Every structure is written in C-alpha cells, then in structure tokens.
What we know:
Layout: H1 8-17, E1 25-27, H2 35-51, H3 58-71, E2 78-80, H4 82-93, E3 95-98, E4 101-106, E5 109-115, H5 120-124, E6 131-135, E7 138-139, H6 145-152, E8 159-166, E9 171-178, E10 180-183, E11 187-192, E12 197-202, H7 209-222, E13 227-231, H8 240-250, E14 256-262, E15 269-272, E16 284-288, H9 295-305, E17 310-313, E18 321-327, E19 333-342, H10 359-368, E20 374-375, E21 389-391, E22 398-400, E23 409-410, H11 418-425, H12 428-448, H13 452-458, H14 463-475, H15 482-487, H16 489-514, H17 519-526, H18 528-535
Parallel strand pairs: 1-18, 12-13, 13-16, 16-17, 17-23
Antiparallel strand pairs: 2-19, 3-10, 4-5, 5-6, 6-7, 6-8, 8-9, 11-12, 14-15, 14-19, 18-19, 20-23, 21-22
Amino acid sequence: MRFRNISPLIILFTILFGVLIGTQIQKFFIGNGSNGELSKIDDVISLTKKFYIEELSTEKLVESAIKGILDSLDPHSIYIPAKEFNQVEESFRGDFEGIGIEFQIVNDTITVVTPISGGPSEQLGILPGDRIIEINNQPVIGITNEEVRQKLRGKAGTKVSVKILRPSSGKIFSYSITRDKIPIYSVDAAIMINNNTAYISISRFSETTYDEFIQALDRLNQAGMKYLILDLRGNPGGYLNQAVKISDVFLDGNKKIVYTRGRISEFDEEYFAENTYTYEKLPVVVLINKGSASASEIVAGAIQDWDRGLIVGETSFGKGLVQRQFELRDRSAFRLTISEYFTPSGRNIQRKFADKTNKMEYYSEAFDKQEIEGDNFLHQNESDSLKPEFLTLIKKRKVFGGGGITPDFIVKNSQLTELTQELLKENVFYSFTLNFLDVNGDKIKSDFNNDLKKFKKDFVVSDTIFDNFIKFIRAKNIKLNEQELNKDVSYIKTRLKAQIARNFWKNEGWFSIMLEADEQFKEGLKLLNFAEKMIR
C-alpha cells in the first residue's frame, strides 16, 4: 500500500497529528541494508538529475525519495524539512525567544492580539489592539506572518525597536524591546466555573504540560475545586511521558497507564502510576472530540479503563502508533513508527489504515464519522461493531478498541452554518471587535474595572452592536443568509462577547464566555455527580 500525491498542507496536518510520543532524538543509522539495494536509490537520483527535462536540485530529489519511503509505511511516519523543524520543535519544547506577543495581520497591519504573560512586551505596557507600524525604523505595512516572526524573534538579550500606533488614543509610541525566552503554554485555561467546579483545557502535551497542569490544579484546589472538567478536545497529542504523568495524578496505587509493543523488543515498555496525589478521588469528566489524538487518547483511555471518570463528547481520532524522531545532518528530521501503544485493558485504539488509498482518506474518515448522541455508558451503541471487545478494569463495562476512544456519553459539537464558518475563515469576529474596542475599549475598561464576573453578568451584545456587526459583514462583501444568521445568532453574540472579554482577561475571559454556548461542556457539567458516584 502507498500514499501518493501528498500536499504540503496534508504533511503539516500529519505533523500536528503525528505526535512526538518517542522522546529520544537520535542520529539516523541504516543497518542491515544491502549496498546493492541502497545504490539503486543513488542511481535513480543521479540519472534523474542528469537527464530529466528540467533542472532539479539534489536536495529536492533526496527529500522526495525520503517522503516516498515514509509515505509507503503508515500515516504517522513523516519527514520534517529543515525549514519547518525549529517551529515544530518549539511548539513541543514549550518556549521560544522573541518579544512575546500573539499577533494577527489585519488590513495589512501587524495587530497585537495579546502580549504573552510575563514577556518583555507585556512588561513594557504594550496592549491588545496596538498596531505595529515600524520595526527597526522600517515600515512594515503589508508584511507577511513569516516576515514578522523573522524580524521579531531572535536570541534572548538582543534588542529590537518597534513603533506602535494605539488607536484608542491616536498616539504613536516607540519601544526598545529586549528579547527573552517566551513560554508557550499548553494549559490554555484553568478557571473556576462556579464555587466548586474547575475547568482545565490542555491544547497539547509539551515538555512543560505536567508542571503547568499541577500548578493549575493546586491553584484551583485553593479556590475550592471539588469537581474537574478536563478538556482534551482538539489536542493532537505530544510527549508520552507527559500523558503518563498527568494520568498518574488521577490514578492511585501502581495501576498500569499504558504499554507499548513493537517489532524490536527494546521498544516494549510499560508505564504505571507511581506517585500519590491529592486528586486521586477528585470527580473528573474528560471532554474529547474527533481532534483528540495520541497522548490525549492515552489519558482518556486510562481514565475510562479504570472507571476513574467519565468520557464525554465524540469518538477520538484513533492514533495508537508510537514514533521515534531521528534528526538528520541538515537539521531536518523524520519520525518513524516503532511500536503501538495499548490502554490498560489491552486496547489498541489505532484506526485501520491499510485499506486507505491516501492520507486524505485516512484523516477524512475520522472527521466524517457520524455518531448517535446519548448515554453510551455501557457502550451498547457499538454492540454490532466489528471492533475488538474489552472490559473496563473495575466495573467490567464493555469498551472497544481499534478506532479511537468512544465516549461514555456521546454529545456532538454544534454544527455551525456556512455563513458563520465563512465569518470565522475571514476573521470577521476579530476584525469587528478590534474596531469596536478602538472606540469603546476605554469605556468598557472603566465600566467593569477589570471585574470579569461583572462583565459576564452585565455586559450584553446589544441590538445596536449586533446591527453594526451586520453592517460590517456587508461591508466585507460577504453574502448574508438571513436563515443561517438567525440560526446562529446566539453563538455569534456569545463569540463577540468572548472576543471582547479576551482583550481584557485573555484566555480566562475567552473560555469563561465561550463555554456558555458549548453543548459538550454543558453536558459534562451535568454528569459530574455521576462521575463522583463512580469513585465512591
């Protein structure tokens, strides 16, 4: 079986899902290969370069050969070109060096979405909504995202000068910013939903995820946490050891968390709970969806197999293959599947891929799957499944392998209309909010005095604001479908409110508002008492 004609977008998508489960980075060594067989590759590259109708670089031919080899294996063995390697590594390492801002290009202008907490830009007083108009005395109107990163990132201790326009005052400010190490957080939100319920969202499993998670739990525990909703939706995975350590937080004794098996016995490993935590009896609901993969599935699988909490949402992606990363001489790398992982009950949740003609078909299958909503605690919705059957380890409930983690309660994500999807794609919510805050930001700041609870309770997206939003859409020449607009009006108003809240309270403001329109979260909230009964 071969996967052919893979576009760069699919390769990037694969990189996000082809997770860094193997933590060792080794130099590539080819063993047991016949010199005669390997020389065939040299011959093909040499003859192609010499005689092909167009001039080709050796680098391009070698990279194509590497991709061809890996494409013939499985969907998660992938090649990472040198130009992409640093960016991929950064996202899992947990930091980069720069000035510490999240930005977007809006109307050809660099716009500060938010300064990163503790970074040099925040310390100097750079604010959300500021427009960067010069970098090192050079105008930057019309600059690309990649060019922004090249200009603003650099070694810690080096300086960069920026000139900023602040629309709320109409003034221009000049800053000399000393670059520093900037943390990339994998715990996106850790907030109290009410007096006793906490919510934590983890976006990926990087080197720092466990430390971030424990700090968040301890802070929320001090705030009165008695229940937890752990959100792993859209989390593509990451380091295996981080998934193990986070699972250990919830499991007592020396319960098995995950184990791996490969063709080579040295890749066979078993991981158990080792440490004692305050949170081993904390009622927990885990949210997953079609984008939850790999390390996310390890955590969800361990909690489900040990009947330690409830899994709510949609069936996860289904990635049960373990990769090891090999770095090549030119700072490119490739990830090679070396083993499979299994949940404590023995489930391998990897979906079948041998019958797929290409990677697009493999990925589409996960996201196109249709499920029946409702109570699936005994997993009767899968009773006719051909997937292998297993039993949970405490309550002996039936669960299935071979196709992701299926929730105990299936709740579909609300399907947005084509109009709202277009508004999201065109970044209309952010652009409108930016203009709105240029005029009204100081008043909102004065009215709510940094009080998020008061904002949540009292701020309303009024008819006037909504009408102005409609005018803004029309000015963007986006076709308005009234029926679709009416269907999504509640979501649209919630998102506008959340976008405004994010400007003042960052992710805490964003999540605390958006969760009010989140059906999977709301169902999880209702099931916390059930989750508590499971462990009592």
